[in-house]
Design brief:
Length: 462
């Protein structure tokens, strides 16, 4: 009974058909399929960061350059080239930056304009395809994961990211699962960002639904909120490099201090769990500082599954309850008490080698944002499945026989409802077969043709 298992991965892509249609209609549509924009950021000591436009987040891929300049207050001129995208393709965009950034700093804006025009000629990012992406005389070959594959979302080398804290991976998994507040203190923005992204993807295929900042600075708009001591730390994971934060965040419940990574083939010395009271000075040693006691006993083999999804499947209406003449039945609401009772006779403690307080872990998990996000996503998937099933049953029904003894008002109402279902199927990109939609369109046209001509004209106009 795997509450955390998902048979369908999250999708970052549009369907192939919709992507190609959009690309033909809108200027810069292909560019927008890959990137939101390209930014040139000059460091301003007085201004700091600009205010975020909204609460949504993007992925930023940065190439940083620092050049000596005696005319600047700090003695260095600092500028970054940033790619902004909704897609978490770390390797692709970092490789792209390595190509275009050196040229940009030499040739400036004309170089960026040429690159953006090249990206605007790229094919849309279609899952399951290997794409050849030409830029600046080089062709980048990129394989996008297929819809039915569960890839590592952030494309990171998780082993490398977790090397210094590998022995604590199970405890960190619990902390991330429960949405606990965590600060990662790292030696560089790269290590900070990669560690945060590795942590958020550690509970995959469950989506991490709390807030996280791979690289948090004193200029962030939430700085005052996160550093106040008048309230408990929020459910957020922060990555920092500034030694200032060692004292500022010492009251946070979970702190990971990562030292400089050595480029050797040996596994680095594993850091121990330490008391938070020892986190006081700038020369604080690497380690995991927390008083957290895990719900589950440590297991070196790290079980990959917790429960199978038997309980959630039981919330779905029976197929025989789905009939063509009525709206699809409602999904039964999730009951924590009912679910907890199922653990007694079919829970993971019966088969898993991982022992511990499973009931306590689930009780705590139900109160976390990750459960809420997971349940919303699964409820959406079940609702879509019901909609698809309803469409198929409608297409299998004899609609022409049904309308024989119906009034014109009832027939028009049927046409409008069928059209609404078609629009919803296209708008929500429901995973329904194309032939089902085509058959439904044919049904609509046939039903309209059975009506008087004046009604046909009205329905064809709207």
């Amino acid at each position: 009974m795997d509450l955390f298992e998902s048979n369908e991965p999250r999708s970052y892509f549009k369907s192939e058909r919709n992507s190609e249609v959009s690309a033909r209609r809108l200027p810069w549509a292909r560019f927008s399929s890959w990137l939101e924009c390209v930014c040139v950021v000059t460091f301003d000591l007085e201004l700091g960061q600009a205010i975020e436009r909204d609460t949504a987040h993007y992925y930023g891929y940065v190439y940083f350059r620092q050049v000596k300049d005696v005319s600047v207050k700090r003695g260095y001129f600092q500028k970054s080239l940033v790619l902004i995208s909704r897609l978490p393709f770390v390797n692709l965009f970092q490789s792209l930056l390595q190509l275009i950034a050196p040229e940009y700093f030499e040739k400036l804006e004309p170089c960026l304009e040429a690159v953006c025009n090249e990206i605007d000629q790229w094919p849309a990012p279609i899952p399951g395809q290997t794409l050849n992406l030409p830029v600046m005389g080089v062709v980048i070959q990129n394989l996008l994961p297929a819809p039915m594959i569960l890839p590592t979302v952030h494309e990171l080398d998780l082993f490398k990211c977790f090397q210094p804290i590998l022995i604590h991976i199970q405890m960190l998994w619990e902390l991330m699962l429960l949405g606990e507040p965590i600060v990662v203190m790292a030696p560089s923005p790269t290590v900070s960002s990669e560690t945060i992204l590795a942590l958020t993807s550690s509970i995959s295929p469950l989506k991490y639904c709390c807030d996280y900042h791979p690289y948090f600075t004193i200029h962030n708009s939430e700085f005052k909120e996160y550093t106040t001591r008048t309230q408990a730390p929020p459910n957020v994971v922060l990555g920092v490099t500034n030694p200032f934060f060692i004292k500022t965040f010492q009251y946070w419940p979970h702190i990971i201090r990562i030292g400089d990574l050595k480029m050797s083939g040996d596994l680095p010395k594993q850091v121990k769990v330490k008391k938070l009271t020892k986190l006081k000075t700038l020369d604080t040693k690497p380690g995991v500082y927390t008083a957290y006691k895990t719900f589950l006993h440590k297991d070196k083999t790290l079980s990959k599954r917790l429960l199978k999804e038997r309980y959630l499947v039981s919330l779905m209406p029976l197929q025989r309850a789905v009939i063509p003449w009525k709206n699809p039945p409602q999904i039964r609401p999730f009951s924590q008490d009912e679910f907890m009772r199922t653990l007694e006779h079919s829970g993971p403690q019966l088969t898993s080698v991982l022992k511990g307080d499973w009931i306590g872990l689930y009780s705590r998990f139900f109160r976390s944002p990750n459960f809420d996000g997971w349940y919303r996503q699964r409820h959406k998937e079940m609702t879509q499945k019901l909609e698809c099933l309803h469409l198929e049953i409608i297409c299998e029904a004899d609609l022409l026989a049904w309308i024989k003894d119906k009034s014109e008002v009832e027939i028009v109402d049927l046409v409008l409802k069928l059209r609404e279902k078609l629009v919803k199927a296209h708008h929500q990109q429901l995973p329904v077969r194309e032939e089902v939609l085509q058959k439904l369109e044919l049904y609509i046209e046939t039903i309209i043709s059975s009506l008087p001509e004046d009604l046909q004209v009205v329905l064809h106009r709207h």
